[in-house]
Structures are given as C-alpha cells and as structure tokens.
Amino acid sequence: MESTGAFVLSDRCKVPTTEVFDTFWKFAATRQQIFLRRIAGIPSPWTTDPILRIHRFTNVFRASDRVSQFLIRRVLYIGDQTPREVFFRAILFKLFNKIETWRHLETLLGELTWKAFDLELYARVLDIRAAAGETIYSAAYIMPPPPFAGERKHRKHLALLEFMLRDGAAEKVASSDSLQQVYETLLGYPSLGPFLAFQFAIDLNYSSILDFSEMDFVVAGPGAKNGIKKCFPASIIRAVTESASEQFAARGLSFSGLWGRPLQLIDVQNLFCEVDKYARVAHPTAIGTASRSRIKQRYTPNTEAQAQWYPPKWKLTAPAAAATATPAAITDIRSYEQKALNFRL
Known about the structure:
about 5% strand, two-stranded antiparallel ribbon, mainly alpha, 14 helices
C-alpha cells in the first residue's frame, strides 16, 4: 500500500504512513464511543460503521473488556490481598481466561486459595467438565501446554501454577522494580512466551500488589505487529501513544479517554491488533505480516449496560451513569451458579 502521509517523530524525523494509520485513529474514536454509549444504556445500534456493527472487536482500553473487568472486580480484589494469594488467583484465572471456568471451580470448590490448593482436586473438577463437553479455555489466544506430567492440558497448567508458587514467583513479582522486571520473571517460566508473559504482567499490575505505569513498558503481540506494519514500517508504539491527543485533533476526532485516563502503551498495542482485523475489511489491499483476509468472529449484541470497575489506585472519576459498583457491593460472587452441594468427585 502506498504512503499517504507522514507521522512526525521529531522535527527531523518523519515516518511514512498509509491510509490505515488514519483508520487507526478513526477506529479508536468510534470504538470508544460505542463503549460509552453501551454502558450508558443507550439502545443499539451504537454506530453506523458497518464493520463495527457486524464484527467483534475488543475495547479501546484493555481494562474495559468483559474478561478484564471480571478479573479486576471479582478475582483480584475479592479475597486475601497478600502477594501469594493475589498471584494465585490471577494466574489461575488467566491460564484459562474464561469466566465460566472460574465460576465452575468456585461453585464446586468454594473460595479459591493457594493455601487450600489441591492440584488433583482442581484437575478432577476440570476433567469432569471437559468430559461433559464444556470448553475450559478461552478462544482469545492459544495456551501452549507446559512440559509437566499429565495427559490433559489443564492438568499441565495447574502443575505450572503450583510450580510457579513454590518457586517464589509471587514474591519475585511483588518485589519487582519495574513492569519490565515482572515481565522478565514470568517469561522465565515454561510455556510463557513474550505475548503471554506481557499479558499476565499487565493483569497482575491491575492488582493491589503492583502499581507500575502502563506507560513504562510494552511488548507488541503478533496481531499488533501486523497492524503496525499496515500503518507504517517501524514499531513505534510509544511515539503513537504519546502523540494521541494531537493525532485525534488533526483528524477532527473526539476522544474522551477513560474518565481522565489517556491511552496507555498496552491500549495502543491492543488497538494495533484490532485495527489489523478492521483493515482486513476496510483496507483489503493493505499488507501486514500475515496473509489473513477476513474477521473470524461475528458480533453478537448484548444490550445490557455493564457496570464498570477499575483498580482503585487509578483514581478514575467515572460518572454515576457508569455504575461503578465496588467489590464490597457484590453480595456473593458464587451466586452466579447454584452450589452443587452433592457434587462427588
């Protein structure tokens, strides 16, 4: 795709851009408008963009996505806030990254804690769920099996979780001096490659045991790299993030941010990944690092306005319309499913 403009890095450095770079900012502004309209309870459709109405895309701010919201509100901040217990809950949830799997474990086993963790018990609960034809893992990304004993992948991942805790991973993470150090610690464990290690680092940084700026460090995943290549040849996530206000203004786009929180490196990394998908339809001739030409997931409307809740340390000034319920207001996390009191392993 031919260059249609230039992205200014400095007075003496300009990077050629394509039309997809304009689409990047339009996509970000429109997708965030959809999010705000939806949580405000405005009836759908929330946009006239035909691609966004038909296909599924993550939110502009990673922390606003459904799974991240569940993790923040109902996994990280409910329960013991010691590093070991927070780390245990966070990694247990993220290994499967599926709300239904967490709810199922909690329904049958009660409060999920490292102190009472029994690998065989957890594994048998998931054995039965898998045998019943239920999906244990999210389809959001591939979870490679770590090199631990067990025929089933979920048993290997539970063994990895136990290994990490016994190896002092929670303490190493909690004593880290930077987000990059958290990432490097996680990267040292079996099957956690650069993408997963960074995603897990961000998830742990949502919790009470870490408080690093999301502007400190970023690792581009495969989708983001593809989106970057469609916009310009250089990997310049930080420069794009820091110029966001000017970029929106230059295109006459309104972008309100997340109630006072501007785009962070992780959000722009995600945006590049999502605009890669969007460009498959909007700019089919744009060439990335992969040859994908369609968007797999279709959008299924969910008109229920969702309450938003973010890490308290962010100090977001969300309006009342956003229904910012706190974990203390949640009566009982296990009320989502009826207790299987007579369950037999």
